[in-house]
Amino acid sequence: MQRHRVDFLDGLRGLSITLVIFFHYLGPVHQDIHPYSAGYIDPLAHWGWSGVEMFFLISGFVIFMTIERCNRLPTFILKRWIRLFPGMLIATVLSFAFVSLSFMPLATNSTGNILDIIPGLTFVSPSFYHAIFKIKFESLDPVFWTLYTEVAFYLLFSVMYFAAGWRVAIAGLLAIAIITLVGPSLLASTHLPKVLVRSLEPLQWLRMDLLGWFASGALFFKARQMRSNGLFFVALLVGIGSALLQSGSSLAWQDHAVLLIIVALFAGAQKSIELQRLFAAPPMKFMGYISYPLYLIHNTIGNSTLGWAGRAFPNAEPIFVISVVMRPLLPRHTSLRAGSNQPQSD
Fold first, then answer.
1. Over the stretch 299-322, which tens digit does the pLDDT of each residue have?
2. What's the predicted TM-score (pTM) here?
3. How far is CA 68 from the centre of its chain?
4. Residues contacting 224, CB < 8 A, separation 6+
5. Which alpha helices (H) appear in the chain, and where do they start and end?
6. Residue 338 near residue 86 (C-beta atoms within 8 A)
7. Angle at 146 between CA 63 and CA 38, to 5 degrees
């Protein structure tokens, strides 16, 4: 079967994983583990978390491209599972061994409990297992939360797409996002029974408030496919709305501004030949190819190792230490490159 690839999307994915790594390695989130400050790349490190939103835009674009080449829902689900599970299985084995045997301070809440492998391997938030079994579950790696959100998007979008078409599917994503954003506070203000007030919590566990990013990416794909400036404008509006409405108690106006830049960059890459050439450059594409397996292991394994290296070599240049730590994490085989949102037909 003919393969389809949009090269600049690989570069955008490479940018996304780079931003996330800067955030986790040089940003404020793990300063208790390693001694480095971001220094001259502080803006990239401080706002590197926005790489996740870029990932979600890319995923919306690419999954729409993929689902149009599947004639049945089971086919799509099977292909997504084949893309996701092998990498997650390898990452789970490595991370569990690392957490169980490590003498280093760890960038995870997991203590090596065997139950902690279940959320990642099933792509289901540990909150669901805790609610059902009343037993404490943790993600083996905190960054797995984005996979729970992504898989929920796959399921919701594909079911609505095959049942009612792409317009209803995208509208459904936006409706669920809005319900997740405003529903809990509205229910909390009522005198309904507690079980009803808490009925929307599963949507919060899965971060369904972020579905607008996927919807925007899907609309950008459809606009590109149909060569429609009208759809492009709608995609841009949905992206802007997602950036401005993104929830979070600690989000300041600067954070929303950064999210708007992410939307502008993604939209610009759809239209600008110069940006497409930039993101199609080999180094950017390479980082895009390895982004999925690297994402899965960069935090618990990479961050904890970086913390040990930082204490062993406190005067070393942070970027040098990071490059040394990351080298063993880079997959050497193309079989490990299959990711959650590779832009090609299956």
1. 888 877 777 776 666 666 566 556
2. 0.89
3. 22
4. 232, 270
5. 7-26, 42-46, 51-67, 73-101, 117-122, 126-133, 145-164, 166-188, 194-197, 201-205, 211-226, 229-245, 253-271, 273-279, 282-289, 291-297, 304-312, 318-326
6. yes
7. 120
